[in-house]
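Purpose: get a first structural picture of the assembly so the mutagenesis plan has something to point at.
Setup: four entries, given in the order below. No constraints added.
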Amino acid sequence: MVQKEPKDEKAPRGRPRAYDPDAALANATGAFWRAGFSATSLDELSAATGMNRPSLYGAFGDKRALYLQALKRYTEEGRAAMHEALAPGPDLRESLLRVYDAALALYLPKGEAPRGCFLINTGSAESLNDDDVRAQLAGALREFDREFEQRFRRAQAEGELDAEADPVLLSKVASALLHTLALRSRAGDGRAAMRATAVAGVELICGPAGGRKSRPTRGG
Amino acid sequence: MVQKEPKDEKAPRGRPRAYDPDAALANATGAFWRAGFSATSLDELSAATGMNRPSLYGAFGDKRALYLQALKRYTEEGRAAMHEALAPGPDLRESLLRVYDAALALYLPKGEAPRGCFLINTGSAESLNDDDVRAQLAGALREFDREFEQRFRRAQAEGELDAEADPVLLSKVASALLHTLALRSRAGDGRAAMRATAVAGVELICGPAGGRKSRPTRGG
DNA sequence: GTGTTTTTGTACTATATTGCACATAAATAT
DNA sequence: ATATTTATGTGCAATATAGTACAAAAACAC
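Result (structure tokens, whole complex):
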């Protein structure tokens, strides 16, 4: 009953899986990403993952459960990437631009068709019909807001940002830029135009000439 | 036979329609709005419009054609409302807030469940699979951007906005606020929080204390 | 009235889709 | 080797869905 050795090297008992669960989930994500939840059939998911239907059901449950797990995985990866982009080191402008550049790289994969954001562009279509999707969407947006917010608080603490600025509101505006990039990617907008928008947004958020009011120390 | 009188009062020849085409299209829009294109069945559309399937086909064509016409109608109404909100009269801040308040009223109908934006939240889910949807989405976003842009140009001409500001880039940021409101409505965010975000965005766009400060010109 | 035109309503067909049953395969345990 | 366990693969059943055929209905023209 109680395993004393929770090693990963445990010998599984029956026939080994022919797939890597995380890779399969990533491929299922790719299928859902293109067409959304409703327009993606189990046949497409089966083809994308290389798993047949019964294996899909055994591994992830039904189509909806698979979609929810794909959303969860995607959100966690996105949040990790965002946390990394906002990590200490670069100044505020640079930090924010790293987030937007990472988003653009995700939304406009090199050599492939634009795809926008799996969470924003497919989750919001489904959210009115599915409370769990809506909850995941809401939770993810909140987390992304918080990542920005914490970065703004640090910027204030370091004198990079006006002390009177409201980090919560600024985080919402910073997120709005992310949301517009996701949407515009799906509308076919070009990378350069979107990056210019992000830069303009960053300038508005960070305020004129490196800080909002007083002149803090340059560089950081 | 040349009709000399192209009046609307012309007597149609066969059995009269039992529906009002524009009302039916509005009701179909409502059905698509909730669930998106793929997840809305013809039975639901039939129930929403009160028309049976053959009448739907006769009036609008197949499901996709109906969706495209719904999108077109919605976009035109939205653009008209936006144009109205940005019409001369109020100052820039007030003009922008009128747009965001109108959007919130549309996205969060009183007494009903939140629904977000039909175009943004359902169109972007479908846009990768349907070139016509993508084209309509892109065209609509462009039109909305232009409405903001023209308002910013007028604000500059009237000295309401720094002459060095870039109206194109500001319009993209102003649209980003619209996009985030659409998304957040569908995530369940509250009206007050969203309005506060819009106000904060307007303040950033209009600049400190009435709008005479250095603005970003070009990014890159 | 009879005929023409257009819309409506019922019923239908063809297909797609989801989810699962059941037998087979591939591993371990003893 | 034999039993046990877990995964796979074929195939299927129940349902849902899109789109249409066809007859009845409701208007006009004469």
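The CA atoms of residues 96 and 202 of chain B lie 7 Å apart.
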